[in-house]
Structures are given as structure tokens and as C-alpha cells.
Design goal:
heterotetramer; A mainly alpha (about 475); B mainly alpha (about 130); C mainly alpha (about 80); D mainly alpha (about 240); A: about 475 residues; mainly alpha; two-stranded antiparallel ribbon; globular; B: about 130 residues; Helix Hairpins; 4 helices
Chain lengths: ~475, ~130, ~80, ~240
Amino acid sequence: MSLVYFIAIPILASFLTPFYKNYLRFVSVLVNILLAGFAAFFYSRLPLNEFISLDSPLSIIFILDYVSFFFVSLFIGVMLFFSLYSIKEKNNTAVFVVTNIFTSGALGLILSADIFNIYIFFEIASISAYILTGLNRDKVAYSGAIKYMIVGAVASIFLLLGIMLMYLNLGYLTLSSIGAGFHTMDKGIQYLVLLSLFIGFGIKTEILPLNFWVADIYQATPTKIAALFSAVLSKAYLFVFFHILYTLKVDAPALLFLTAIGLLSFAVAELSALRSKDVKRIFAYSTLGQLGVLFLALSSANVVVVSGALFLILVHSISKLMLFFSLDLVEKKMHSTRVEAFAGFRSAFLFTIFAIGFLSLLGIPPFAGFIAKLTILKGFASMGAYGIVGAILAISLVEATYFFRLLSANQRSKKTAEIKVPLLQKIMLSLLALAILYLGLFPQGLLDFCTDAAQTLIQGVIHV
Amino acid sequence: MLETLNQTTFLHTVVAIGSFTIFTIGLVGVLSKKNLFKIFLSLSIVESSLFLFFIGSHFEVGKAAPIVADGIKLFDGHMVDPVPQAMILTTIVIGVAVLALSLTFVVNYYRLSGNIDIDKMDELGEVQ
Amino acid sequence: MIGVLIVIIFTALTVIAFWVVSSRDLSSSVIYFMAFGLGSTVLYVLFSAPDVALTEAVIGAGISGVVFLVSLLQTQTKEDT
Amino acid sequence: MSLKKTVGLKTILTALLISFMSMLLLGVIMNAAYTHTSLGYDLLKINTISTQSANAVTSVVTYFRGLDTLGEVTILFLSIFGIGIGIERSDRMKTILGYDSTLLKIGTKVLFPLIVLFGLYIIAHGHLSPGGGFQGGVIIASGFLLMFLAYGDSYDLDHKVLSLFEALSGAGFILVGILAALAGGAFLGNMLPLGVLGKLFSSGILPIIYIFVGLKVAAEITVLVEYFIRTQDARDA
């Protein structure tokens, strides 16, 4: 068994599309089930290093430790859910070709411990995202895709610059060797590399000075696909960025800078959401806000906070899947995602799903978001950073304002259309809601795993 | 005089100054130009400047290409590092793939809207 | 010798890059861009990277120039206003 | 957050950029202490033993870092698939840039097989001389470009065959890798005899991988060229 199957099999499925053109949706489900099987197989063998194509540290290295296992299983779960959820869409071969490759790109980003290989997977994931953005083939979609491609190209140029500077000065591409040699480099070059990485990954992780484009892209993207961007893509980039940072063992001021950026990002995003009149954009801003919290928490280098952040990543992915998929149903009926359209639908089921998603994101018990936020706040309190605790709570109040405004708008206004949710969708969405409730009531098993994962993340990649 | 021109450190300085000048020209183009074609041309220029920088910085005077051909019998330290060349090879192909995709988007967008100016792309944003 | 050549070509490339960005006529921009690709091909040969030179010649100067020109023709825009 | 529309932003960005650039220049040039022990030299040392390929760049691309090449081929496939999504196929497809000239037609007829042969030569000699899968593949595709230019609408490609080619060459690459893994080695590891350095039939698995890469690139770039050169006339679209 080889870790490379996580990458090779989805790509193979996409390459062979001409042989089963009309059945690709079933093939995608099978591929994702197969990948889930691989993940289950590797669970008892953690942690694991594998050299690809050459049995020596000179070759590309894949690493499956606790934290990458966490992300790998999360992404496979999301993609399996997505392919099952859209299994009835006959005329959507194109989506599945791209999402299969998207899966392998995201998994490659997580598994690879070789910086140039990470760049390749970075590009694979980004290009699938550009194509998915332009999928609607209208003016709006294309203008979104063009904007996305311009910022994405700038991001990959700066990432490439960082990689080149590292190779020029250290001579190695493996993360562990780079981590071992990073502090022997000249101080100026170190900061240059960090700045280039920050610009490259900052654009992709949608962090403050570099995230002015995000809401536009989410608005242009088909709603279900926007869920994937929120649940998979940004998380993959986030993980890689912090994986590299902890491996390089950057000094405290740099981490403090990231904490400040995260807090600012959270605040600005929630305030923008308050102003917005389009539900899709509101969800995009809410994603930005949560990513700000994650940035803030992941840069703390504290095991409790980071384990809370990992828990929050899982909860946020599930909640955003629920919200975007339900919004997709609303959009199909009302032909709009404006707040007025959102206020006009009638469906007790969808209303419940929205309510659960909002409450979980806000961190209200008994939903899983509560546990995540509680862990993060507890960690910050134990570090003595009460200012951050207060700030997070205050900004969460803003978040609560617009979520409750949306819900009450739907409660109060006159209903124009009744939405009947198909059975498959009903089952899938209820499963997500139950998962959130379950994790909120019995979080201990997952929390323990998150603590192990957080330790691995903070430790970074060690020299093999 | 000509001796100093042939020294590796001098060449590296030329490569660094030259390629970062081109890099800056390209980036300024990306930021200041409004025509979408111009933006993508500038992005390609920026990318090429990085390739020149990387390959040039790995070259040292007197080193041969990493290929065993007539005259050279063995792989050793008298050859340039093959890894940067392989990396750039990969990146050039990726670059052209992305470029073709983005130009298709531009052409399709033009067909639907008749517009090619980035400042006039106002389909997205808060609707009043 | 190689030092002089590299200095000359780099200067030329900088000028060409400036023309690519600043030229008002889009199709001449594209032609300058192809010239930029050819110039960098020569540089790669000087840097002992024949593989990269060959790739840059067929892709950088060839295919991307064609792609640019054809899309320009399809949008019927000539001037950068 | 319509920062983009604020007037002063561009000036600020440009100023920031220039300062970043000057910092970069100073940092890079003044402190350039480029390393002399690197991955590349380590790979050069083991190149003869582990691949017997005369071109070290080829061994890095197809063998030592074969996974990068897989990713790259995937990106090429993905982009061209994405281009295909946006293009509506119809009967009113026209070849732009066509030249109606008998001389060109006859010349092309003679040149086309030569170009394809040259491309195949470059691909097959990837492990012996400069060039290889990508370069040879693009050269083959440029032969098709010439055919499009000379014959215009009357030149037809069989799309079924082309898409089969695309699928099989890409899948072949991955399957060779998986076969190597199943034969006991690593993914894309070597399972064939290495032969003698400098001979056409040498270097084990490398030429096979490069042939798959070359065919894939040739098919993809041909599709790309066709998408770009044949299109609905913009005036009546």
C-alpha cells in the first residue's frame, strides 16, 4: 500500500472519463469510497513516512501523521458527501471531472512534505477552483473567474519566489531539511522568504489585506461549489501554511503578527457581513471571519488552542456545507440569493437546518461549535491572553446580529414560495445536522485526537 | 576588465538586477494596466523573469549542461545543478496551461459583454 | 565573453519587457512578448540549460504567442485604451 | 470591501511594490551566499547508478521527481478540459488565421510527416539528448497547427481517436507508476533492466514514462490549438 494512491486514483478516474462518460458520477462516489477505505487502512499505521520513486531522503516525501490524517479524512468525507449529494445530476459530467482532480490536489497539499511538490498541488487545486468558478458560463461567472485567475497568478508567483530563494540558499526541497537549515540563512533572506510565503498563502487563505476578492468569487461560483471552497480549499491552504511555518520554527514576533492579522481579519469580515444584502456574500464573509479566528488560533503555538482550532475546522466545514447546500435549494426555487428572496421561502425543514448551522457557527450549546470555541477561549485564557478572549466574544456578537436578522427576516415576512426538499437531500442534510449535534454532546473522542494532531502540527516536520 | 566580467559573482549580480527589474516592470504592468490582455501579458513576463533568475543564479562560469555527450564522460561537479532546470521545465508548461485557460475566459467574457476593461467589470459586488 | 553577452541580452530583455507592458498596440505587444521568449531562449543556452531553452522556444515563444494572437483576433481589440 | 475602486489605492500599491522590490534586490544581491551542496549534486552523483540516463534533467523529471511530472500532466489536462467547457461546438465553426494558398498546402503535405517524425525523435531520445516528452509533444502539435493553417476548414481531426489518445496516454503514465509500485518498488520506481548509458534502449522505465508524457502533451496541445484556431465567428455569435 502506498500513500500515492490518494493522489493517483482520483486523477486516473478523471483521465479515463471517455470510457464512462455518462456514469462518471457513480465512478466518483466509488473513488471517494475507495479513498475512505485507504484512510481507514492507514489509521492503525500512523504516523507514516513514505519516499516516492526513490528509497532515499533525496526523493519526494509523503507524510501521514495525526494532523494530516485529520485533514485527509475530513476532505475525503466532504468530497464523498458532495458526490453522493449530487448523484442524481445526470448532465454534470464536467463537475465530477474537475472535482476528482480537486480532491487529489487538496489531498496532495496535505500529504506532501516537499516544497516544490506542494507548489504543484497548490496549482492543481487552484486551477480546478478557477474552472469551477467559471462553470455557470455567464457574464458573472466569467468575470469572477478572470478576477480569481489574476489574484491566483500573483499568489503562485510569490510562492514560487519563496521556494526559489529557499532552494538557492539551502539546496534542498524537503520540508524537514529546510526546517533544519532555515535559521542558518541570512536574516534578510529569511524575512524575504517569509514575506513571499505570506503573500502567496495569504491570498489563498483569504486573510485580511489580501482578501478583497473573496466575496466576489463566492458570489460568482455555483452555490454548491462555494461550499467546497469554504470547506476544503481554504482549509487545505491554511494547513499547509502553518505546517511550513511550524517546520521553519519562525520567531515569536512573526507569529504575533499573524495573530494580529487574524483578529483584524475576523473583525473586518464580520462588519462587512453586517452591511451585505446578499446571503451568499454574507456566508462568504462569515467564512472569512472564521478563517480569521482559525489564523488567530493556529498561530498561537499552544496545544489547547490549536486543538480547538482543528475542532473548529471540522465543525466549520460541516456547518458551511449545510448552509451552502440549503442555500442552493433556496436559490433554485427563488432564483436569487438576495436577503428579500431568502425571507420569502417557506420550509420548516430548511429553516431548522439554517438555524442549526447558524447556532453552531456562533458557538451556542449544545452544538459542536460551542465546544470548539470554548476550547480555543480556554486555551487563550490559560495563556493569559484575556484581551483576545474579550475581542473574540465581542466580535461574535456582531456575527450573532446578522445571523438572527436573517432568521427573523424569514420568520416575519410574507411567504411567496413553498420549497419541497427532495428525499435524498433531506436525508443528507439531516445527517450533517445530527453530526453537529453528536459532536456537541460527545466531543471527547474527537478532542483527544485533535490534541494529538495539534502536538504534531506544532512540532513541525522533523528531520528524517 | 574582461576578466571581471566573466566571474560568477558578477554574473549572479547581473542576473539578480536584470531579472528583478523585469519582475518589477511586469508587476507594475499587472497593477496599472486595465486591458485584460495586457494584464495577462504582464503576468507572463513576471513569471519568465523568475525563471531567468532561478536558472541564472544556478549557473557558474565554466560549468557544462548536465548531459553526458561527446567529450564529457561522467556526471560530476563540473555540471550545473539539474534540479532547477527540471523545476523550471515543469513550471513553464504549467504557465502556458494557465495562460490558455485565462485567455479563454477573457474571450468568452468578451463575447457575452463586449468588454475587455478590468475597471468596467461590474457584474459582481453588492447590488443596491 | 559570456559575461558581455549576458549583460547585453539582459539589457535587451529589460527594454523588450518595457515595450510589452507599455506599447499601445496590443498585437505589437504580443510580438514583443514572443521576442522576449526568444531572447530568454538564448540566455538559457548560455546558462547551460538546453532542455529549458528548447521548452522555452517551443512553448514560451511559440504556443503562447499563437494563443495570444488568436484570442486578440477573436476579440477584435487592437488598441490598449 | 470595494477597496479596488478607491482612487489612492493604486499609488499606494505601486509605492509598496517599489519598496518591496528594492528591499528584495538589496537582500538578494548583498547576501547571496548560494549553496554549493544541493539536492541536484547529490542526484548527479547517484544518477549513473540508478538510471543510466545520459541526460540528468530527464532523470530528474521522469524518475527522481516523477510525481511533479504527473501533477504537471494533470494540470495540462485540467486546463484544456476547462477550456473545452467554455466552448460550444457547432457546425458554424470557422478556422481563423487560415491562408488559402496552393503552395502552402503542398509544402505542408511534405513537412507534416517530417515534423511529426522529428517530434517522435525528440521524445524517444529524451534520455540521451536535450529535449524529451514536453518538447517533442509540442513539436508534434505544431505540425497539426500547420495543417490547420494551411487547410483551414477542410482539415478534420477525428475527435474520438484524439480523446482516446488523451485518456490512454495519461492513464498509461499512472498505470506504469502503479505497476512499478506493485512490482515491489516505489511509485514510478524502476522495474526494468537499466542497460548501457548512451544506448537508445537503456535507462529502464524512463523512456517509457517520457513516451507517455510526450503523447499526452501532443494530444493536449493539439486539442488546445484546435480550440483556439477553430471557433465561431465572433461577428455572428
